[in-house]
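## Example pair
The file below holds two records. Each record gives the amino-acid sequence first, followed by its structure token line.
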Amino acid sequence: MLCDDRIIRNGCFSAEGATFTHSGIQRAMGAEDAILEDAFVINEDRLKASRVLVVDDEEANVRLMGRILERAGFVNHRGLSDARDVVGVFLEFQPDLVVLDLRMPHMDGFMVMEALAPLMTEDSFLPVLVLTAELSPEAKRRALNAGANDFLSKPFDTVEVILRIRNLLEI
């Protein structure tokens, strides 16, 4: 199943165990445009300049997050479906925020956070939003303890994800 406008407009996307609801995009295309537009605007220049890196082993999920980010005004984003590439992409792209899945082959989200930690200076701050189908309280605590700044479970509300991204970028 490909991630296209039809799937997003219909309100739900499912890919091999991960389901996303898109009530936010549905609302954004309806009567609440002005309200949601205000919620998505940080500072137009800063929003366009923010770099968001999405790391998820499911290519469909990476594409979906890219479309969600674009609809919210985030034009500088990259997606990875192989977490083993994260260090090289991080150094080249220098993201302002990472959206990270936990359950991935080869290198899980915990290993990604561990690999990124030495690349951070004392003065730098890299917010990490974990977005995962892992629902256990232990995984949530472990992710937050490993350096994640926020944690959301799939399926997720699109508006909430964008608002949390905005909030993390404002810190």
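Second record, same layout:
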Amino acid sequence: MRLTTPPSRHNHAAGPAARPANANAPRILVVDDDPIVAESLAEWLREEGYDAATAMDGAEALESLKSAETTQSANQPSRPFAVVISDMAMPTIDGPELLRRIGKEHPTTAVLMLTGYGTIESAVEMVRHGAVDYLTKPLVESELRLALSRALRQQALAAENDSLRKQLDSR
């Protein structure tokens, strides 16, 4: 996979250094069974200032999502993933099944779907099942930035809605 950018952008010797993710950076989980694709996208996200992690299939992604929501200590609260960027075709749990499971088990997490072989029908199906967007490879930076922006807005609204609902329930 490659993001379509000027060549100097990905020449790490001459290009900008990756910005370290800060504690307030949105967490993004990249799910792809191709380690080169997963790591190169995660690296790009880190360069953009996000806190990015990878998973090699849907089962590993679900474990990572659950762990991120439950892991906490007195001086370090849990930091759930705001967005999952998932490939469609993967072993064990594929992208569409992962999307459905995230919708049920992690409803405040936004999902972007990626595919190398996109069709209008599959895009419509994924959006109907809750995906914020459906992107085709190779990724175009401007399209990915826009999709991430929409996903983060949707996630923030879902988290706020969840928080308000919990406040009402506690009354």
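Notes on the second record: The longest helix spans residues 141-169. The beta strands are 27-31, 51-55, 83-87, 110-115, 133-136.
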